[in-house]
Amino acid sequence: MIKRMCIQAVIGIVSGVFIGFILSVVFASLNGATSYSPSAPAFVDKFNGSLNATIVSAILWALMGVVFTLGSLVFTETDWSIVKMTVVHLLITYFGFLPLAILAGWFPLNFVELAFFTIIFLIVYVLIYLICLIGARKQAESINRKLKQSQ
Q1: How confident is the model at residue 23 (pLDDT cuts 50, 70, 90)?
Q2: How many domains, in total, are found in the chain?
């Protein structure tokens, strides 16, 4: 299990940095930036130059990737119900992602912004969950059809 966790962590680091970088470029473009900035100006201003801000951003993106990839290992626990796995995964990802998002300067730490972040997180989580659920059902139906045809 340790080996699998290490492999997942490396995958999380790479995917987190990649996704974080792509999203930062997209958001910079949408905001009409003429030069690259890894995050909001308030975040970048906390550092001695944009290089340091980019390095810290990359570390935060890597940690976010690790949270989500290691969190997905919950679904490999076969003796748990799907409800238990989902609730544990939701809690791991929310409470792992929340402090990283705060550190990344994505929202200020106050009740209104925290509530807004939580609502957005839950909406995105439910949408991804439903997409995965539909995909899994289609895959199960396909396997069942193939099994019936082979009999």
Answers
A1: very high
A2: 1
